[in-house]
Amino acid sequence: MIFRTTRTTRPRPALRRVRTTPTPRPLRHRLDASRVEEIPLHAADGVRLGLTRVDPGDRGRPAVLLLHGHTASADMFLLPETRNLVDVLLDEGYEPWLLDWRGSCRLPYNETGRRYTYDDVALYDIPAAVSHIRERIGDRPLFAVAHCIGSLTLSLSMTAGLVPGLAGVVSQGVFLTPKLAGRTSLRMTVAGELLRTRIDHIPVDFRTVGLWSKYTPLFALASRGADCPDPTCQILHNSAWGTGASLFVHENLAEATHDRLAQLLGPAPLWILPHLRRIELARTVVRWHDGDHRYRALPANALDAAGRIDTPVLLLAGSENGLWLDSQKLCRDVLAHRRPELDVTYTEIPGYGHLDTFLGRGAALDVYGHILDFLGAHR
Ligand SMILES: [Zn+2]
């Protein structure tokens, strides 16, 4: 026998468990399951996304596409513990559609699997959802309500002309002119450089990483000066995944929401930081892929292409936004100066931070009325 198969009796080291199923994990809601239609949507580059339609029970309503922030998911609009945005839209005569784009914590790509940039979201995910919804609703109006990176990437899709003819857009937190607090910006750079070789994402659930792990220093840093003993809350509220920003006004969250933050927000991938950093330095949404012809449909600089915006835009922000500061007010001012022909308004929500504009226990009273007023004026 020339070739001999050698077998070792030593046990092989355990492989890291990687989630490979592209099926989104179940949504958490209190709707009648028969009203929730989950659509296996594939983006043009083959990535499986999540698209959910909530059946309002009658036809002919304007549709509203909801876009979550990075590491969140469609769950952020469906909180069972509060009167959520989907409840309000259904009651006010709209048909809600929820996209889980590839940065959703319901999907595996955020933590494992194929890496991406925000170019991919703007080029593939959002246009795929809009075109699918349009096929279903015909010529009924289609609005979009977008939070954080969902809104930032929507601005790139819009200025690329990839989602023309929306009836109106509500943008929360940040749109065309991203501006981060100085220390957030600095820490994003430092963390990115220091940690990139050792870890590829920052977890939020302390229970899954254990007391002693390579992440312990991050949690320890986030706990400094924190009033709340919950480590997940600390890393989000006190530190925004280690960046030093704050994601919400603490007392605006219901206790049930506070206690399940680790379900609502997933780990933050560090490999996205170079694109985010380039965007932040430019103070506008810029394309990452410059030499790759597949991305040439996207503008190199979304603000320079703002003339392609063909729909009214409502810019929303909490007065206490601890992540994007007054980016939305800045956006209104810049567009009023550079593109006075655009229909852009700005509304500030007193006493609100960033995520609590949707996750807050009083959001239906304090925030959603502004969204409904806007939708009602353009339906
Ligand atoms: Zn807390």
TrEMBL record:
Residue ranges of every copy of the AB hydrolase-1 domain listed in the record: 62-154
GO molecular function term, any single one: hydrolase activity
Family assignment from sequence similarity: Belongs to the GMC oxidoreductase family.
PANTHER family: CHOLESTEROL OXIDASE, FAD-DEPENDENT OXIDOREDUCTASE 2 FAD BINDING DOMAIN-CONTAINING PROTEIN
Native organism: Streptomyces actuosus
Protein name: Alpha/beta fold hydrolase
Entry annotated with the keyword Oxidoreductase: yes
UniProtKB keywords: FAD, Flavoprotein, Hydrolase, Oxidoreductase
Cofactor: FAD
SUPFAM superfamilies associated with the record: alpha/beta-Hydrolases
